[in-house]
Amino acid sequence: MSRDKVIIEREIFIAASPETIFPFLIDPALMVRWFGLKHSLEPRPGGVFDVQVGPDHRARGVFTEVVPNRRVAFTWGWESKDPSLAALKPGESLVEIELEPREGGTWVRLRHSRLPKGISEVHADRWSYYLGKLQEATCNL
Amino acid sequence: MDAILRALADRTRRHILALVWRRERTAGQIAVEFAVSRPAISQHLKVLLTSELLTVRRAGTRRLYQANRQALARLRAQLSAFWDDSLRKLKFAAEVAEHKRRRN
Q1: Whole-structure pTM value
Q2: pLDDT tens, position by position, for chain A (141 residues)?
Q3: Using an 8 Å Cβ cutoff, are A117 and A4 in contact?
Q4: How far apart are the CA of B61 and the nearest CA of chain A, in angstroms?
Q5: Is A140 helix (H, G, I), strand (E, B) or coil?
Q6: Do B95 and A16 count as a contact with CB atoms less than 8 A apart?
Q7: What pLDDT is stored for residue B86 in this prediction?
Q8: Which of B11, B21, B31, B96 lies 20 to 30 Å from A71, alpha-carbon distance?
Q9: CA–CA distance, A129 with B1 (Å, rounded to integer)
Q10: CATH node for A8-139
Q11: Any CB–CB contact under 8 A between A30 and chain B?
Q12: pLDDT of B53-74, one tens digit each?
């Protein structure tokens, strides 16, 4: 699969402090509430990042950065029965999540890079779709 | 999506898809690659056709099978949606946690 410099960047504002949000990024008991079914996490550089996302899909990599209440980064790839997903091998791409405190909450910025071209295009599409829905939902509150 | 995932759950069917990923083959050309019986292969082809992972076209008396790569792209899109869903859930879970923390 051909490779290029496509990077996916998304952000979302959460009405909570970085101190509240950060544990959700590294603690399996909290991560299960927003992402994945089963987790094996060692939140330190070089530590395991292994999340069972569905019955046949597992996201695997290693933590590359863990800065309390500020930033987490881990490599990312699939162990999957779907050949097109499995093209993104464990540890191949990089996910960085940054927390930036602001008045009344935190900006959460997610950056997914080192993606094979075909897959990143699909990711970008879905991001836009869901962020749009999120915005709608928030405006109706 | 479930039909697609079920179709992909079987190893032989994944191998069939790989065989016809780039070029068309007849059922006979597919069957020779496997130790299982010809009727078993036909059954697998049927499942793959039903889930739209496979397409078939007639060329004279032959029926040629090929992977439907569009369906696989759709599957990829559906699978990648978990990421987007996740951010939304993180927002909800963290805001609930924040609310509880402030109350205590």
Answers
A1: 0.59
A2: 444 444 677 788 999 999 999 999 999 999 988 888 899 999 999 999 999 987 878 889 999 999 999 999 999 888 877 665 666 777 778 899 999 999 999 999 988 877 765 554 445 444 444 434 444 444 343
A3: yes
A4: 31
A5: coil
A6: yes
A7: 82
A8: B96
A9: 18
A10: 3.30.530.20
A11: yes
A12: 899 999 999 999 998 877 666 6
Q: Closest CB to A56: pick one of B9, B85, B87.
A: B9
**Which tokens belong to B50?**
């039903």
Residue type, position A55, single letter: P
Alpha helix segments (H runs only) across B9-58: 11-19, 27-31, 38-50
* Whether A134 contacts A11, CB under 8 Å: no
- The tally of domains found in chain B comes to 1
Number of helices and strands in chain A (H, E): 4, 7
Q: Based on the number of CB atoms within 10 Å of its own CB, is B90 exposed (0-12), middle (13-18) or buried (19 or more)?
A: buried
Domain ranges of chain A: 8-139
Q: Which amino acid is at A85?
A: L
Q: Which two tokens stand for residue A25?
A: 């990024």
